[in-house]
Specification:
The chain is mainly alpha-helical and 326 residues long. Helix content is 73%, strand content 0%. α8 packs parallel to α10 and α10 runs antiparallel to α11. The longest helix is centred in the C-terminal third of the chain and has 23 residues. The N terminus is likely disordered.
Length: 326
């Protein structure tokens, strides 16, 4: 059995740290850099395990002499645990603990950007642990806001957009009594709108489309006494996203947005001024979008999404039939 590239790289790393001409600090730095290399484009779970092993070896070598490198190794281990496919809660808890152990050291010795990146990733881990009742969503939102002190829209627009997107999604997942449901939804919509004040289609098209798509989703399900107005705003947001997303360059993102738009059209009257006349035109447009989305999801092996859209098409056809019989 021939050894893989991963195996060879790990052996090379082990050989490098046994080289007596390199200092301990250089060896630790080398291990961290090689581990980071595995994580940039991991081809399989073996790459992730190898990266995790190298970070751990670097962590062990630090002892108490190299606190910043030790913290970076901890952050590397946390990031690896975070991206292991289907990360179970125990791995995510380990990642959370690693970030929380590293952050005080990073705050003392590292750049503000390095600290903010760790806070951003801690927020993601905390958010992932909330469904298991192993973290509080308010702590996740606080970590994101800490990162926003550094990742401003002027200097770091991409991170700024992602952080506000994550904050909005965190609000949407926040458990609240039914009478306060509108509050968290309103906070989510507000978060998307705050980000869109600074993220524009010309300079940051990908982030702009992401925010507009997710704003549309929040508006679509917003509890309100004006559902038609909210749905019209949702359609406008999806149309903004579709100025960037298309079937050629971003097929999966495009399919997500047109299926989201179809969901709105299903419930939107053709003439908002006369809702009693129904929505036969919007139903046909929704069917067209669903069918296109289903084809894209199927072609890209997104089976679960294809099945959801197929069910939506069935429901839509039943609605069209019911309208035609009335």
């Amino acid at each position: 059995m021939t050894s893989s590239i991963t195996d060879s790289a790990v052996k090379a790393a082990m050989a490098a740290i046994s080289d007596e001409s390199a200092t301990a600090e250089e060896k630790i730095q080398m291990l961290i850099e090689m581990a980071q290399g595995f994580l940039k484009k991991p081809k399989n779970s073996q790459d992730l395990r190898s990266g995790l092993g190298l970070f751990y070896r670097a962590y062990q070598m630090c002892g108490e002499d190299y606190p910043l490198l030790k913290a970076r190794a901890k952050v590397g281990m946390a990031g690896t645990l975070q991206i292991i496919p289907d990360s179970n809660p125990q791995l995510l808890v380990q990642a959370k603990d690693s970030y929380e152990e590293a952050l005080p050291i990073l705050q003392q010795f590292a750049t503000p950007e390095e600290v903010a990146e760790a806070q951003m990733n801690l927020g993601l881990v905390l958010q992932s642990l909330v469904p298991y009742n192993l973290a509080r969503i308010t702590d996740s939102i606080q970590a994101y806001h800490e990162a926003l002190r550094v990742f401003t829209w002027q200097e770091y627009p991409q991170e700024y957009a992602i952080l506000y997107n994550n904050i909005a999604i965190a609000y949407l997942s926040m458990p609240m009594a039914s009478e306060r449901e509108y509050l968290r939804q309103g906070l989510a919509v507000q978060s998307f709108e705050v980000a869109l004040e600074h993220i524009n289609i010309i300079d940051h098209p990908r982030e702009y489309a992401m925010l507009q798509n997710n704003l549309g989703n929040a508006l679509q399900y917003l509890i309100s006494s004006h559902p038609i107005d909210n749905n019209l705003r949702a359609v406008a947001a999806y149309d903004e996203a579709l100025k960037v997303r298309n079937s050629r360059d971003t097929p999966l993102e495009y399919a997500n947005t047109i299926s989201n738009k179809a969901n709105v059209l299903f419930n939107l009257p053709d003439n908002p001024e006369k809702p009693e006349l129904g929505n036969p035109k919007n139903l046909l447009q929704a069917k067209f979008y669903y069918q296109e989305a289903w084809q894209i999801f199927t072609a890209h092996q997104e089976i679960e999404k294809a099945e959801i859209v197929a069910q939506a098409i069935q429901d839509l056809e039943a609605e069209i039939l019911a309208v035609s019989l009335n």
